[in-house]
Write a structure and sequence with these properties.
alpha+beta, 13 strands, 13-stranded antiparallel beta sheet
């Protein structure tokens, strides 16, 4: 989110408004979702259409067969999970937690409520823990002029109720490892599985099945991936959690070659295919704080 450049000061009211916008821009850079600030306070609202749900729990194979696959061919299980997610998961709601190291500094944990829809790609986030408790972000691919729509926390939210921001802005990417356009469990399992396939083809991959763990109150198949240094890989060690019931990637912990944590992403309180609609990704939703009334 590039900070505002010098603006003409024709009148004192405009100067004050520019001063407030400058402070808001710096605050939104800390959002951690992406961004270069711009001013936009309204956008078209898509027509509400319900997303059909699919039965749950879901299994492409029996659980015993899946665990056998996990032990004998870990990459094969990740490939099944990737395909299953792509074919059957159309949306979900969850609690999302993240910790990221950016610019050599490990940032404080962030906790959000999240709603996700695959088509059109849609994300709603609401921070539920300080220091940004109450902040909301909506992104819908192809809508809102391809911007993420932010309601900031605290007093800034009273002044700027709805601000549109570029999801790939340079300044904000200093505060987030990935833009909101790459959010979600589907992107995560696709990225991880693709990296494993490439590393395996080059003979670089060590991927071991670590058994079933019950983190977050749900059982997950756990894998440990280790990749060599100086080969262009994003991390040395990655711990991968695949939910036993839904076969979605619910957690990853990444470590660098010095053993330092790079990132931690964790999805809990998961509801798969709950039937989210356009209203869940609409800033005019009366359940959200974008509106004054």
């Amino acid at each position: 989110m590039a900070e505002p450049t010098n603006r003409p000061h024709a009148t004192r009211p405009c100067s004050r408004r520019s001063h407030l916008a400058s402070h808001a821009a710096r605050a939104f850079a800390l959002v951690g979702v992406c961004v270069a600030i711009g001013a936009a306070f309204c956008a078209e609202t898509p027509e509400a259409k319900p997303i059909p749900s699919t039965p749950s729990p879901v299994y492409p194979k029996g659980r015993e067969e899946m665990e056998t696959l996990a032990r004998s061919n870990p990459v094969g299980l990740l490939q099944v999970a990737r395909a299953w997610h792509a074919e059957r998961v159309v949306g979900y709601t969850c609690r999302f937690q993240k910790v990221e190291r950016i610019g050599g500094r490990l940032h404080k944990p962030e906790t959000m409520r999240m709603k996700f829809r695959k088509t059109p790609f849609s994300v709603y986030l609401k921070w539920v823990v300080e220091p940004r408790k109450g902040q909301e972000v909506i992104y819908v691919e192809g809508a809102y002029k391809s911007k993420a729509v932010v309601h900031p926390p605290g007093i800034l939210g009273l002044i700027f109720r709805k601000v549109s921001i570029d999801p790939h802005g340079k300044l904000a990417m200093k505060h987030s490892r990935r833009p909101i356009t790459m959010a979600g469990m589907g992107n995560m399992i696709s990225l991880i599985t693709g990296q494993c396939e490439q590393a395996q083809a080059k003979g670089h991959l060590t991927l071991t099945y670590e058994g079933i763990r019950h983190d977050g109150g749900r059982p997950s198949y756990v894998f440990k991936r280790v990749l060599p240094e100086n080969r262009g890989y994003p991390c040395k060690t990655l711990i991968i959690f695949i939910d036993v019931e839904y076969l979605v990637c619910v957690r990853t912990d990444a470590y660098d070659w010095g053993g330092e944590l790079i990132s931690h992403y964790f999805y809990t309180d998961l509801a798969v295919n709950p039937g989210v609609t356009d209203s869940d990704f609409d800033p005019n939703n009366r359940a959200y704080a974008y509106r004054l009334f």
